[in-house]
Design brief:
With 502 residues, the protein is an alpha/beta fold. The chain folds into three domains: 147 residues, Rossmann fold; 168 residues, TPP-binding domain (Rossmann fold, 3-Layer(aba) Sandwich); 152 residues, Rossmann fold (3-Layer(aba) Sandwich), CATH 3.40.50.970. The protein contains 19 helices and 18 strands. It is globular, with a radius of gyration of 24 Å. It starts with a strand and ends with a helix.
């Protein structure tokens, strides 16, 4: 670890004071704990390494909980350290006292409190190991001030990190290949477990061999080139019936690196066609067959498993099935190209719009961005306009928000830029989301983080408008004025002036 993201407090003062003795360790100061966690989340996603976060006591942890939920849903390996006044004061229930472990448990993978100075380093090693072991996620350690201040003679040892490069037995791979080989409407549903395993190329090859559609679920990274003819788009997020209308069309399904499904209102009915074989591959055993039954569940590394399965399918599929797979891929490519051309034709009608339409901005941005630029996309309803031109193609080049916590766009971009100081990094957020964490701009200036920030300003919580229109339609409610609480135009927010002040 070389960086810590945090906001200081009195009960951590001794610890923070000692950081000055380590000039190669960098403390990135946030003005509020939500931003500290959001920056750490971005940094951890960019580096794929455990990342340190410092929060202040119960109130600071409370401020950070929403973004910790985001990190947990996204499996970010954060190591959250929070100070408290000391063990000696437990009986007093004094100012800022809280049961920090109980508060942190719902939004972390593991939470604990150090109660003896002689176990401090052992607990920290365990915390780092837990955060970094799939399924990765944030961990929490409460550090009483009197424990931190006490002498410690523990031996300093490195953390033992585990290898999870495990493949299923070859007999299981062959069984899955036989189960899937004859499909005429195959579908792959993949998520960020693919990127975490470095399995982007293996996912693509498997899709090509099998002639399968690829749909993203809990997909916030470039798990596959979005311009690939067989990448069809995203499932999930809000309404399960939408996902079900797609997944029920498949006659064989492979799920990899995701849970089924990341929706606010998931379908309670079966989401796959009767009789369609379903195979789920993931390092997270908890998610396999959690909500819907599967025919084969493989707790295994996606990279090794997808590679082996592609080879097995290539051996198992006869020439007729291989030709049909190639035909399906060609049809998908032609259909996707027609859809893109139609969307871009509509975009051309906005060329002279005032204010500038998001698609016009995105097209010009795509012309000017360096080839190795990185985007953090919290544009939400504007994201389709953005990705038509600034399209996720390569691993580590594009990060979408995940988990549902608003305000991650700007802090996430800062964390990614800290991890990639020599690359152009742009953070997108909406007017609503950006106002959750607008003071992150101050941190970017203070630490000379050269990230760039874009507010997609539609003067409202636009996603709520989209969702309530569906709500009205489902319940046969006549359209009427949106709730006043969805509006952000009165008074207008002057983002240019806000930015100049920070």
């Amino acid at each position: 670890m070389t960086h810590m993201f945090g906001n200081p407090g009195t009960v951590e003062q001794g610890f923070l004071d000692s950081l000055g003795s380590y000039p190669d360790f960098h403390y990135i100061l946030a003005l509020q704990e939500t931003i500290a966690v959001g920056m750490a989340d971005g940094y951890a996603r960019a580096t794929r390494r455990p990342t340190a976060v410092q929060l202040h006591s119960g109130v600071g942890l409370g401020n950070g909980i929403g973004m910790l939920y985001q990190a947990k849903r996204g499996h970010a390996p954060l190591v959250v350290l929070t100070g408290e006044a000391g063990l000696r004061y437990d009986a007093m229930e004094a100012q800022m006292w809280a049961d920090l472990v109980a508060k942190a448990e719902p939004v972390t993978k593991w939470a604990t409190r150090v109660v003896d100075p002689g176990s401090l380093l052992r607990v920290l090693r365990r915390a780092i190991k837990e955060a970094a072991t799939p399924p990765m996620g944030p961990v929490f350690v409460s550090l009483p001030m009197d424990v931190l201040d006490a002498p410690n003679d523990e031996e300093v040892l490195p953390t033992s990190l585990l290898s999870t490069r495990v493949a299923p037995p070859q007999a299981e791979i062959e069984r899955v290949a036989r189960l899937l080989a004859g499909a005429s409407r195959p579908m792959i549903i993949a998520g960020d477990g693919v990127a975490a395993s470095g399995a982007e190329a293996e996912l693509t090859r498997l899709a090509e061999v099998w002639g399968a559609e690829v749909w993203g679920a809990d997909w916030s990274e470039a798990n596959m080139d979005h311009t690939h003819p067989q990448f069809r788009g995203m499932l999930g997020h809000m309404f399960g019936d939408h996902s079900r209308s797609i997944t029920s069309q498949a006659d064989a399904v492979l799920i990899c690196g995701t849970y089924v499904y990341p929706e606010v209102f998931p379908s309670l009915a079966p989401v796959f066609a009767a009789g369609a074989p379903v195979v789920h591959v993931d390092l997270n055993a908890h998610e396999i067959a959690k909500n819907f039954p599967v025919d084969v569940g493989l707790v295994a590394d996606p990279k090794l498993t997808l590679a082996a399965l592609a080879d097995a399918l290539a051996r198992t599929m006869d020439s007729e099935h291989m030709a049909e797979a190639a035909r399906r891929a060609a049809v998908m490519g032609s259909s996707k190209q027609r859809e893109l051309e139609a969307q871009r034709a509509r975009d051309r009608s906005y060329v002279d719009s005032v204010p500038m339409h998001a698609s016009v901005f995105a097209e010009e941005l795509a012309r000017q961005l360096p080839a190795d630029a990185i985007v953090f996309d919290e544009a939400l309803t504007t994201s389709p306009d953005l990705t038509r031109y600034v399209t996720p193609t390569t691993p580590g080049s594009y990060f979408l928000t995940r988990g549902g916590s608003l305000g991650v766009g700007f802090p996430g971009a800062i964390g990614i830029k800290v991890a990639n100081p020599d690359r152009t990094v742009i953070g997108f957020s909406g007017d609503g989301g950006s106002m959750y964490t607008i003071q992150a701009l101050w941190t970017a200036v203070r630490h000379q983080v050269g990230a760039k920030f874009v507010v997609c300003n539609n003067h409202s919580y636009e996603l709520l408008k989209v969702n309530i229109e569906e709500y009205w339609q489902e319940r046969n409610i006549a359209e009427h004025a949106f709730p006043a609480s969805f509006d952000l135009a009165e008074p207008d927010i002057h983002f240019d002036e806000l930015a100049r002040s920070l």
